[in-house]
């Protein structure tokens, strides 16, 4: 039976993880029921052209009869609903700063696949990213980690889930060109090798039962670029 005190939540995004996965993870961690609507690229285009999206982009979150946009605003709202936002205002400031910093990393990483370069040049950009640019960022997160503890306070917060999600997408192919290169896949899979505290935090979050259950059931794709994925490459999306 539905909980009448809870709003009806519908998260709409493409059939990949992308900018919706943090919110999905947060809802899962907090045991918050929501509709996980995953739509084809063409349907997002239709909604955009029809003026149905507040800022012309995904994800959106419908809360009862109101529609909201902006992925990290949605994730922070989800954290409050899920009980994963700290109570103390300074802890909130710290947690939200960490969340926003993971977006800094993601934005720089994902931008590579959109560069108007030939495939060899794109692969060279990925090598530069993993060998030179990313380690500087990961060192900053490594310094935030406290051995055996969560990032903010004494319990799991959205900050931990956001850093887990960042590590998760960094370790997975972003696009078809990266997925096609064993070298680049190996660089991605091993990118946390020099950061033991980040590895420990990632494992700690992955072992949270509700998150583990989500990771076990969520759809899998060979990479995260909805523009080039074929229908046959999506699974468990019914």
Describe the structure.
The mean pLDDT is 93. The protein is α+β, with helices and mostly antiparallel strands and 238 residues long. A four-stranded mixed β-sheet has the order 2-1-3-4. It contains ten helices and four strands; from the N terminus they run E-H-E-H-E-E-H-H-H-H-H-H-H-H. Strand 3 and strand 4 form a beta hairpin.
Q: Which secondary structure elements does this structure contain, and how are they paired or packed?
A:
Layout: E1 9-14, H1 21-30, E2 35-39, H2 41-49, E3 60-63, E4 66-69, H3 71-82, H4 89-110, H5 119-144, H6 158-170, H7 176-179, H8 182-189, H9 196-206, H10 209-217
Structure at a glance:
Helix content is 52%, strand content 8%. It has 238 residues and is of the alpha+beta class. A hairpin with a 2-residue loop joins strand 3 and strand 4.
How many strand elements? 4
| Shape by Cα distribution | globular
Uncertain segments are none
Strand content: 5-15%
Output the structural class.
alpha+beta
- End-to-end Cα distance, whole Å, is 22 Å
What about the largest sheet?
4 strands, mixed
The sequence of SSEs as H and E is EHEHEEHHHHHHHH
User: What Rg, in angstroms, do the CA atoms define?
Assistant: 18 Å
**In which order are the strands of the major sheet placed?**
2-1-3-4
User: How many H/I helices?
Assistant: 10
The average pLDDT value, as a whole number, equals 93
Summary keywords:
238 residues; alpha+beta; four-stranded mixed sheet; 10 helices
């Amino acid at each position: 039976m539905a909980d009448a005190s809870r709003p009806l939540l519908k998260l709409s995004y493409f059939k990949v993880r992308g900018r919706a996965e943090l919110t999905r993870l947060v809802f899962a961690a907090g045991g918050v029921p929501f509709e996980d609507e995953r739509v084809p690229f063409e349907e997002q285009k239709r909604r955009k052209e029809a003026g149905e999206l507040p800022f012309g982009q995904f994800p959106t979150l419908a809360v009862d009869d109101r529609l909201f946009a902006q992925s990290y605003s949605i994730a922070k709202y989800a954290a409050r609903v899920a009980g994963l936002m700290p109570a103390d205002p300074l802890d909130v400031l710290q947690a939200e700063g960490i969340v926003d910093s993971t977006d800094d990393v993601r934005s720089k990483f994902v931008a590579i696949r959109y560069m108007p370069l030939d495939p060899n040049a794109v692969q060279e950009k990925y090598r530069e990213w993993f060998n030179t640019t990313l380690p500087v960022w990961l060192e900053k997160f490594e310094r935030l980690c406290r051995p055996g503890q969560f990032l903010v306070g004494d319990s799991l917060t959205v900050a931990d889930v956001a850093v887990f999600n960042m590590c998760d997408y960094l370790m997975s192919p972003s696009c078809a060109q990266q997925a096609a290169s064993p070298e680049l896949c190996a660089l991605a899979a091993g990118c946390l090798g020099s950061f033991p505290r980040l590895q420990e935090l990632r494992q700690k979050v992955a072992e949270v039962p509700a998150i583990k259950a989500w990771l076990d059931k969520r759809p899998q794709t060979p990479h995260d670029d909805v523009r080039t994925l074929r229908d046959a490459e999506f699974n468990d999306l019914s």
